[in-house]
Amino acid sequence: MKMxxxxxxxxxxQVDAFTEEPFGGNPAAVCLVDAFLPEETMKxxxxxxxxxxxxxxxxxxxxxxxxxxxxxxxxxxCGHATLSTAHIMLQEGMLQxxxxxxxxxxxxxxxxxxxxxxxxxxxxAKKVVPVAPPPGxxxxxxxxxxxxxxxxxxxxxxxxxxxxxxLVRSLDPDFVALSDVExxxxxxxxxxxxxxxxxxxxxxxxAVGVNEDPVTGSAHCALAPYWGKKLGKTLMNAEQVSAxxxxxxxxxxxxxxxLRGKAVxxxxxxxxxx
Length: 274
What we know:
By secondary structure, the protein is of the alpha+beta class. The chain has two domains: 8-124 and 260-273, Roll (Diaminopimelate Epimerase, Chain A, domain 1), CATH 3.10.310.10; 129-254, Diaminopimelate Epimerase, Chain A, domain 1. The chain has helices at residues 39-49, 79-91, 137-140, 165-170, 175-178, 220-231, and strands at residues 8-17, 26-33, 54-60, 63-69, 74-75, 100-105, 108-115, 118-124, 129-130, 150-153, 157-161, 185-191, 199-205, 210-213, 235-240, 246-253, 256-261, 263-273. It has an 18-stranded mixed beta sheet that branches. A hairpin with a 4-residue loop joins strand 13 (199-205) and strand 14. The protein is globular, with a radius of gyration of 19 Å. The two termini are 19 Å apart.
């Protein structure tokens, strides 16, 4: 006699983060679970959702636990999926205006606060130190050796400053070659060409299954202190100039970075898992 596997359903939402309009910003899936599923199952759900990140939120007696998966791996930090999670918590009555949710994550405790139409994330700053570009990075980005002004790295990513936003926008990387660079991803950035923004950026992470991330909160944990030091500012408007595009207000507070953004729910449903 063939045994039938027991199945259950979990609520799933898709949210566009760092935007006020549907179909802009960075989409993330948010799954509300009663217990964390086996890691392989969460990876399969992330592959099924086929977005840059899928978040899994678990309520516990001691607070909220949050994990994030790309279609390929679990990651230690994800800004836009955290913003999306806080947005769903606010929408579903799990977070109240003016209140804060604290998430236990692989990057330590992270908080999100609802302020009117904004979600404010409190993340650790990521210091970037100057390094020589690793073999293949400049070529994979399609740049010449004299076309970048600065190359640096934190524990996760490389950061390259380019002379202007037009060059950032025009990049057409070789993602196969870029995936061979030993890092989670690469930020490329330049001063904004528009007066309403302080800097512009793009983020590429083919090594973890995301060729280009539309809007990357965790990258701004490095971009904000980098540009803050260069511009002599603590509060800045940032634009990520991917095809979908997105904006956020960033604030450097010592060893922390506040990321302010908006989000829109584009659909909700249930996923059956066994």
